[in-house]
Amino acid sequence: MISSHSEPRPSDLGDVRTANRAVVLRHVRRHAPCSRADIAAHTGLNKATVSSLVGELIERRLLRETGLTENRVGRPATMLVLDGAPYAALGMQIAADELVVVAVDLAGTRLLTWRRAFAAPTSSPAETVRALAALARRAITRLTGQDRRVLGLTVGVPGLVDADGAVPRATALGWREVPLAADLRAALREPGLTVDVDTDANLAVLAEHRHGAYAGTAHLVHLTGGASVGAGIVAGGRLLRGGRGFAGEIGHLTLDPAGPACGCGRRGCLVAYAGLPAVVGRLLPDTQQDGPVTDFLPEIERIQALARQGDPGVLAGLADVGCRLGHAASVLANLLNPQAVVVGGHFATLAPWLLPAARTEFAARTHAPTSGGCLLDASTLDSAATALGGATASLAAVESGRLPAA
Questions:
Q1: Dist. CA 271–CA 227, nearest whole Å
Q2: How far, in Å, CA of 388 to CA of 200, rounded?
Q3: pLDDT of 3
Q4: Were both Cys, which of 87, 149, 316, 375 would link to 340 (CB 3.0–4.6 Å)?
């Protein structure tokens, strides 16, 4: 899934052929189009091994030949690229007001992106599982109708996720001890489909690391903007999960003990200042008159329009949210020294008004803002970044060299 920034090397432990398949697939993904000789020269695998592995991967339609190139010394070489046309993987995300599903092929090409309006914070876990399963079934039907096999599904949740895919707590959803992966597997009844669950922040940083403007960055943080605020962290080219998988819970960092009440029971948490419901509630107080907001897109568009018109209250509110965001990002920068902290979701949408104040606060609070070399920037991925990361994560078994069942 996320590997080190250096070239993968062949392994002499465990299943050598599986490990070496992974070496070949990763090299082609990073350097395509490339030849068999290129693979051998850059990975240390001998030419006979590369030829055997490539033949196997072509037969299983994970690689394909694209023709000859003569722009090189010696004889023309047959070039290789990722194929994977018979396969697809799904990623899903539970957002503040919608469910999203994304499908990709092995090369990372998006095959579909679907959204369904859904008020997860006011729905029960059982209702959410039913809605996820219904949307997943539609996507699976579409993909199998294209003669593709769906290899896996990974769902991103705005909360804590343990190693079994259960959600011990998701404050933004009002969940406690929800066995989401097990419940979704039971609802789908797809014995050949791998179903996993991860945090929305972990999957978003995976998408950023693979597909975003900072793709391949060895030390990277993605801050999700939505019903919750989480930090997905890549350190040394690897996802940082922590002892129980709960790393990155920056949304409940206390910025001011006397600040606004948070759903976690404390006060002054980052999410109470900068989470999507908090931002909309503060900048558009009239939205609270008809009860909780269940569709945030029109409200974000109103905030953008008011900011463009120079509304002083909205501009001041956005600047304050930006300061809170910069404060939190500085904590991450001081602790982790990433090369970049990238903000997504509504933070990216409102970046023209958030980032100036955020960067000023970030520089003021970062111990070595110049020599530390950390950038604070907006993600170039869309609001489906978590679902895109989930689909990418679902390809992990193939990318690790394990062949799909024949």
A1: 8
A2: 10
A3: 42
A4: 375
